[in-house]
UniProtKB/TrEMBL annotation, chains A, B:
Domain of life: Bacteria
Full protein name: Xylose isomerase
MF-aspect GO terms: isomerase activity
The Xylose isomerase-like TIM barrel domain, residue ranges: 21-249
Organism of this sequence: Roseomonas fluvialis
UniProt-listed InterPro entries: IolE/XylAMocC-like, Xyl_isomerase-like_sf, Xyl_isomerase-like_TIM-brl
UniProtKB keywords: Isomerase
Phylogenetic placement of the source organism: Bacteria, Pseudomonadati, Pseudomonadota, Alphaproteobacteria, Acetobacterales
Gene3D superfamilies linked: Divalent-metal-dependent TIM barrel enzymes (3.20.20.150)
């Protein structure tokens, strides 16, 4: 049983990790999922201690992946160490887009598969679940050639033990095959992220809505996750130029208030 | 055997249909695919005569669909009449997004199915192929709840005679299941549209690239289409604030020059 609510730190990206930890405790948010930049800025050991002292559950570390970039394997191994150090439930994988100048999507997907095979032994040894996160197809060129839940589960089938999927409703809500794939994910959901699809959406990356601001039937997708054994509540991950411009305290209050929309 | 190259009129949307017809003839572009607004502005009968006199093949009429809007069925019936009048190979269907205020995606999809069943008798009687065009998942909320080629083919399976698919590389290039679905589309491809995915893309609708400007391996997808029996060449459909701001003559020259990227 995971925490009912977790804060992905990018949601309030003007805050340091220390401030996020303190804010979670103060607002009664029992879970946290840091990004690596704020984790490294605080220092991994200090962060691990503060998070433990605050009694927060670490629902994930964002993020490994980006296998299209040079040095990706070594960087993913460091991410696995960091995830282990802070006791994260999983390392969320944003697998990377096309290499610069390439139009070869099948090759990019093969490269992701190879990269995952390369890092999996370290992940298993560290007890860190590799959570494959399919990203919305509009990010295929520059962020993730892993685009659907079905594709992620195919990879899990191949990779086996120590892998799972991170389901973000923003990335999967449109999928006509969603119900079937969510059932197929039984026992393999390693993270459940929420935000909302605003209509219209004005930016391909930084215009996500808080739960209830958009058109996603979040409770319906959450019910699918729970039918597949997920008990970890929701992690709120909002990349939004609009919300980033607001007072973080107000954003945290909104997140608490909008929990009813999840 | 269709024309090797066809101009979708929205690519040069500052031109009237009469100007588009004249430009196709002058630039040696043997096919045309008008949008309904420019067709209606010219008058359907006058347009039909001018297109015939210019010796152009009509590769499609854009567009029917939008079943989420009031009056959609009657409007689609008018579109079928127009497609018949200009001898269009097909009526391209952009099926519509969620109804205003709705989060019920399954219901919106059922409504699309019902709408297609309603208009199919008229389409068959008129000899107009209904070309279901899956649109990129980023348009699911506001333009098309039909998001994948597999989903479109499932509908074709159900609807039967008189239906097919319009494949636009922009909408399908990211799909991990593309090769399988393109093979499944054998004999059912009713249109093949090209443009390119720019990386980064700055607008969800109006930032498409000309062939070669982006990351899509267009020849690879075209080869899949031809392996499935498609002989109709490529229809160039570019929705782009950038290209719309250029001299249409320059855009037409670019289209001719970039045909090698298809």
């Amino acid at each position: 049983m995971g925490p009912e609510l977790s804060l992905n730190t990018i949601t309030v990206k003007s805050l340091t990790l220390a401030q996020c930890i303190e804010a979670c405790a103060r607002h009664g948010i029992p879970g946290i999922s840091p990004w690596r930049d704020v984790l490294q800025a605080m220092g991994v050991d200090a962060a691990a201690k503060h998070i433990r002292d605050a009694g927060l559950k670490v629902t994930g570390l964002c993020r490994g992946g980006m296998f299209n970039l040079p040095g990706a394997i070594d960087d993913n191994r460091r991410a696995i160490e960091e995830a282990h150090a802070i006791g994260a439930d999983c390392l969320v994988m944003v697998c990377g887009g096309l290499p610069a100048g390439s139009k070869d999507l099948p090759a990019a997907r093969d490269n992701v598969r190879d990269g995952l095979h390369a890092i999996l032994p370290e992940a298993r040894a560290a007890g860190v679940t590799i959570a494959l996160e399919p990203l919305h197809p509009m990010t295929c060129a520059d962020r993730s050639v892993l685009s659907t839940l079905g594709q992620a589960l195919d990879l899990c089938d191949e990779l086996g033990e120590g892998t799972g999927v991170a389901v973000d409703v923003y990335h999967v809500w449109w999928d006509p095959d969603l119900a079937r794939q969510m059932a197929r994910a039984k026992g393999r959901i390693a993270g459940f992220h929420v935000c909302d699809w605003k209509s219209p959406t004005t930016d391909l990356v930084f215009d996500r809505g808080l739960p209830g601001e958009g058109v996603i039937d979040i409770p319906a997708i959450r019910a699918m996750a729970e039918a597949s054994g997920w008990t970890g509540g929701v992690e709120v991950e909002i990349l939004s130029n609009h919300w980033w411009a607001q007072d973080p305290e107000a954003v945290l209050r909104e997140i608490k208030a909008r929990h009813a929309f999840c």
